[in-house]
Amino acid sequence: MASLETYRDIIQTLLTDYAATPVSNGEIDCYTVFDEKRDHYQVMNVGWDGHRRVHGCVLHLAIKGGKIWIEQNMTEMRVAQALIEQGVGKEEIVLGFQAPEMRPYTEYASV
User: Fold this and answer.
1) pLDDT at 26
2) pLDDT, mean over the chain
């Protein structure tokens, strides 16, 4: 298991890199929200696509119990794979968006 600071650095770099890619449609800002005190990290989209308001969290990762939880992924990015490529073990990643009873059937940690 890597240190808490290592996990924070990996997550912040991953989300910052994602947020730097411009949104292709509308007048939409993509930015990060990092709460290191509670270890929650998000990417938000905010703006307008024509007459439609866009406001929401597209990525949300958290560090809980020494593991990285993928709480939300509304992107095409393969977040778990990106974490593995940065040296995070599958046993240290929890797919928080999966129902708890389904997590044991994934190749990642169940809690």
Assistant:
1) 83
2) 96
Is 83's pLDDT higher than 90? yes
pLDDT digits (tens, 9 = 90+) for 21-43: 988 888 999 999 999 999 999 99
Token readout for 89 is 């073990």
Reduced to 3 states, what is the DSSP secondary structure of residue 50?
Answer: coil
Q: Token digits for 91?
A: 């046993």
What pTM was computed for the model?
0.94
DSSP string, the chain: ---HHHHHHHHHHHHHHHHTSPPSSSEEEEEEEEETTTTEEEEEEEEEETTEEEEEEEEEEEEETTEEEEEEE-SS--HHHHHHHTT--GGGEE-TTS-TTTGGGSSSB--
Q: Which residues contact 6 (CB under 8 A, 6 or more apart)?
A: none
Helix (H, G, I), strand (E, B) or coil at 5: helix
- What domains sit in the chain, N to C, each tagged with a CATH number? 4-105 (3.30.310.110)
Residues in the chain: 111
